[in-house]
Design brief:
Elements (H helix, E strand, L loop, with lengths): L3 E4 L5 E5 L15 E4 L5 E4 L4 E5 L5 E6 L2 E3 L2 E3 L1 E6 L3 E6 L5 E5 H5 L1
Antiparallel strand pairs: 1-2, 3-4, 4-5, 5-6, 7-8, 9-10, 10-11
Length: about 110
């Protein structure tokens, strides 16, 4: 399942977007984590080296690359935490957390 599915508050299916691929709005692996910014943008981790930022309708806004090499090989992004002006990304092995400024991206 290489897509994001959207449900309303009553858990009724509304829509889905995304598919397998490497282009903006596509996912290299099934999404494993989704966070929402204060502006309603979606931050999607798909267990690759790229985290995508999508608008509420699923259109690509940008991406962050966070792959790094560790003693056991490459570590891919597995989770994201969004604060009003910062995005924190954790790798799959819990070895590192990276911080990115959302304010700088918006400027």
């Amino acid at each position: 399942n290489f897509r994001i599915q959207v449900f309303d508050r009553g858990l009724k299916f509304r829509e889905s977007f995304g598919r397998r691929g490497t282009r903006p709005g596509e996912f290299m692996h099934p999404p494993v984590h989704v966070a929402v910014t204060v502006n309603g943008e979606l931050v999607v981790c798909d267990a690759s080296d790229r985290v995508q930022i999508l608008d509420a309708d699923g259109a690509p806004i940008g991406a962050v690359t966070g792959r790094r090499e560790g003693p056991s090989g490459p570590h891919f992004i597995a989770a994201a935490l969004v604060e009003p002006e910062d995005l924190y990304l954790a790798d799959e092995h819990g070895c590192a957390v990276q911080r990115f400024s959302l304010r700088e991206r918006a400027a």
